[in-house]
Protein: Hexosyltransferase
Amino acid sequence: MALKRGTSTGALKNRKGFRPPPVSVVLLLFVLGPLVFLSARSRLSAPSAASDQKGNLNVSNKQVIDAFSIDKQELEPWTLDNFRRNHVSYSWKVDGSDSSGETNVTFSEDKMEGGSHKKDKGIKDDLLASGQSQLSPTIYARRQLREKLRERRAAELVQQDEEATVKLENAAIERSKAVDSAVLGKYNIWRRENENENSDSTVRLMRDQMIMARVYSAIAKSSNKLALHQELSNRLKESQRALGEANSDSDLHRSAPEKIKAMGQVLSKVREELYDCKVVTQKLRAMLQSADEQVRSLKKQSTFLSQLAAKTIPNGIHCLSMRLTIDYYLLPPEKRRFPRSENLENPDLYHYALFSDNVLAASVVVNSTISNAKEPEKHVLHLVTDKLNFGAMNMWFLLNPPGKATIHVENVDDFKWLNSSYCPVLRQLESAAMKDYYFKANHPTTLAAGSSNLKYRNPKYLSMLNHLRFYLPQVYPKLDKILFLDDDIVVQKDLTGLWSVDLHGMVNGAVETCGESFHRFDKYLNFSNPHIAKNFDPNACGWAYGMNIFDLKEWKVKDITGIYHRWQSMNEDRELWKLGTLPPGLLTFYQLTHPLDKSWHVLGLGYNPSIDRSEIENAAVVHYNGNMKPWLEIAMTKYRPYWTKYIKYDHPYIKNCKLSE
Structure:
């Protein structure tokens, strides 16, 4: 019922029967009510603001939620170092607040043992101790999820770290395997401090002193200081005697330290009296120029002697050829024939062509070929030699037949069709100009001057045995394919696979020899000549003679011999190339050569000392092209065993001619 305006209190009291409370009760309510309210509020908020006896901060609901919110640091990419820096241990606790009111989190150094149930129990105990039992399920779940997430990430990072360590260790092991521990002169390759870079410093010091002594001796003589000149000359002779032929300190005479000391004293005295920078520089420059001239002269002489050695025949091989020739012509005619002559024109067999005047070299080619053949009875070897060695070559293979293989020896002089009217080379060799070029060679007056001309006068460039390779269809008209071999090669594997190589319509199968900038056409041919420049590419890749598979059918179709004749006739004045059979071969078989895999034919054993051993041993054929042939004394020792293994040094003929390894 609404109270009407103007109604008095007294009327109301009378109407309801209401009696007002005493004044004392009203006052008590007004005073005690707020006190009770404040006391209850203080008691409820005290646990959130007060610290417990352990010093752990009890935070409010909002503070707990904020404490578990992901901070910026946790949003960064996780790494093992970052985890270890920010989280020392999996267990942690809240340590109270600083003066700014921010909650500080410290991480205890508890051990990580004990499993996740201990951590969960610690989290729950912290929550109960904080008095926040009404929020414990939510807070506990959040903290538990965070701990599990951290555990999982930490395990992943530790695993990644271990995998990276294992990879590094494995890489280090592989690198250590590649290190050659057998280093001469060092007991441990890792002990670099034991290396003495100046192991021959005494020898070098003596040589330096002798150079300066010669310089000051010349200056003293020109300055009329005869006493100093004589003293320097005497000390120089003493140092020369002490040095001798020593190349290392261990080879020096024990008097060397005394001579060094005496020479040093003399040089110090002379330097004080005669030193002039300009004069000393002039003397040293003159000595350098003189030494350079001597080196060039010695190089020319070395080239001359190597060319001379390359074209000579050792006494032992000459003896072998003479003895075999004598015994051959003592045989009755019926004993001079080889068996299985019916195989010579059978195109279904494997045929080889070998043109040589060296009995010992030819025997190595034949022995190595048949020794490595899988079916020797299917191999036929055609040898052609000159009149001088025809008897010796026949006698050797009559005494030493190649097992079940077929062999036949012919004399190049019996090829009556090979005459000057047909062959341009023979016609050119009969000319006076060619005889003068090959035999007189501009009459060199000194040994060094003749070195460059001597290689042009090598008999192999005059022999038709060297040019017979351009007449294979004429020599073997009934054959379809033939493998050409030089006499300075060694066969190390079965070669029958070459007959099944698809030449793709080409005539010649050969191994290419060119690199990035060498063994290309411009090295062998004169591209200043318009005939060469017009028809050939100077960067075309060169290839090697020595092991070549020839398709004689395609040869005849493309008239290879006619192409050779045309280029050989144009080179009568040697304007296209100077010498040899490789340049005309490059011209003749231009764009008609199929490249073979390099493992078929490895070259350079007659001049290159740095061929990889594995490359040699994996090759089907190794070639001693160059001056250092394996039957010469100048052969490279490390390559010679590949050749000598196919020689029977206990054979009576070889022993009698004193041929040895």
